[in-house]
Structures are given as C-alpha cells and as structure tokens.
Specification:
It is a single chain. By secondary structure, the chain is an alpha/beta fold. Helix 8 runs parallel beside helix 9 and helix 8 crosses helix 12. It starts with a strand and ends in a 10-residue tail after the last helix. It has 12 helices and 16 strands. A hairpin with a 4-residue loop joins strand 2 and strand 3.
Amino acid sequence: MLVKIEDTPEFYSQLTENLKAGQIVCFPTDTVYGFAVDGTNDKALNKLAEIKERKGKPFTFFMSRSKIEDYARVIKRRIIECFIPGPITVILRRNTENFLPVDSEKIGIRIPQVDFIIKLLSKYENPFAVTSANRPNQRPICSALDIIEQFPEIDLVVDGGELVSKPSTVIDLVCTPPLVKRKGAIPILEIEKVYGHNVMLEKPTKLNVLFVCTGNTCRSPMAEGILKTMVDETYCIVRSAGTLPMNGLPPSENGVQVVEEYRGSIKEHLSQTLTRELIDWADMIFVMGYKHFQHVIDIQPGAAVKTFLLKEYKRKVKYNEISDPVGQDIDAYRETAEKMLPSLNLIARDIQRRFGEKVSSME
C-alpha cells in the first residue's frame, strides 16, 4: 500500500498499527528510503532480514532522542548533540538493562531530520529496526513507486518523492578517537571540527582529496602527482580540477618534468573543470589562491569546512597563495613544487594518521 505523508492522527495510526502488527514499513528519511519494523519483534526482524538477505548483520535503530540513554551508554555527547537528529548513525555501547535483539555489545542509533519520523518515534513505544531500501550490494532505491515494484512484499510504503542523497555517515563513538565506518552525508572534517581532533577511518574507506587551481594544467596536477608519491592509494584517492572551462588539455611539460623529479607521473593527466559533483566527492579540498577558494564556495557553500588554501594548511606563513608558474622556465616550476611540499607533507601525515599509520616526510 502506498500512502502520502500527512500530519493527521489517521496517518500516524496507520503507521503505528502496521508496526505493532509486525509488518514492514518503508519511509523516506533525510538521506534514502528505509525499511523499518518494530525493533523488539523477533518475527518482524526475521522477515526483514530475509527480505534484505542480511542474516547476522546488525540493523540500525531509530528511537526518540529521549530514549537513547535507555538503550545505550552515551559518550562524546558533543557529536550527538550537534548532529542528531540528522544524517548520521552513531554506534554506542548497548545498555543491556533494556531488551533489544542485539548480540553485539554495541548498537547503531540514528534519528533522521524528518518531522513525521521524529513525531512517529515520540508516539511509538519501541525503537524501530531499520535498513536501507535496496537489494544487497546495490544502490538504494530513490522512489516509492520503484520500491513497490521491486519489493511487492513490503506492507506499507510512505511516498516522500524522489530522494537522491548520500547515505548517513556511520561513526563508532565507543572508540577513541571515534572511528568512521562509512562516509556519508556529514563531511568527516565537519565531525572533526565539532570533536576537536582528528577521527579515524576504517579500511577500506578512503579519503578523497581534491586540488584546485585555475586551468588544471600546472599547479593542481603537480600537487596531485606529488601527493600520490607520498600516500599509499590504500588510504586516499587524489584528483585535481581547474576553475576555468578547460577540459581535456595535457599538463605543462615543465610540470611533468618536476613531478618526475619527485618520482611521480602526470603524463596521462587531462585537465577538467571544477564541478559541484567533484566538490561533493571530495573530503578535503586544497586551493592555490583566494579566488579558487571563493569559486569553490560559490558552487557549494557547505564546502567551506573542508576547503583550505594549500600553502597555509596547518602552517603560519606570510604569503598564503601559490603563484601560477605558467609560461615560465623549469626553475619557476621547481620553486612552485618546493612551496607546496611542506603542506603536502602535512596532508600526507594527517591522511595516514587517520588510519593509524605513520608517514615519513619527503625532502
């Protein structure tokens, strides 16, 4: 059955009745559609696990904020208070005094920033066990009609329109520092800003690093090529882009030579224009000048927390920009690389520290 969201007693009664009857309800969250059942109903949980083919895998539990401490031991409150409700799943140590069908000592808790879900959670006695609306190893389904077509066994589907979003960020707060188990809608650097320190990342998660200059033929591909020699690709993916619409151009010959002097290669590089998709993809963005920073923010204002002038990354320097060597001789390109190097060493160090690894600096 497909229903529309309505702020009426009848709407909430219908959802409540289905959940109490052990049925599966599908509803839109602030990220993707989710399948939900009463989290204390073993029969409903088994039904959901069968549909999702996830026996033995834990579910996330939705509950009202007032009930979190009934089911979990709350720590690192600053992260919880800042991001919940919102697109984040926090993993906490389970409070065994209240029953939930969980074998693990830990429990994943989430409250979407969706008015009707928050209201429903306040009305319903038990937490919901929830999983994303998709087949195993496939992308979440974006529309209610597609869910009905692909999952005819779902009892009730709440239509929230088409959802196109990253999944929730999953972070284990039991660990110190916190451990990001899945990247998602909340940027890692935004979490670190609230926490006050770096967090850790669980493999095979990788950090996405983006360098930005003007034409993407000199400075940013040089930074990309040199950083790739400093950090194992196990830990990060590095790309570069330019603010001008100059797609498909090869790198400058001097830039290629200088990167080779650092034991890297950018021979196969082709320039690309900075887009919102690239900005959203990146976990860390490093720009060469103020105009590049402004360009990033003009495209995606929310990217400010993860965007840095390369030269001043964790450094106090008098001149914060890295000037463009285009059209100059090889010595100008070498000088550009030398100005980048201290910051690239710091970036490489911070990336690998987030995975518990050490890195040696390049001279």
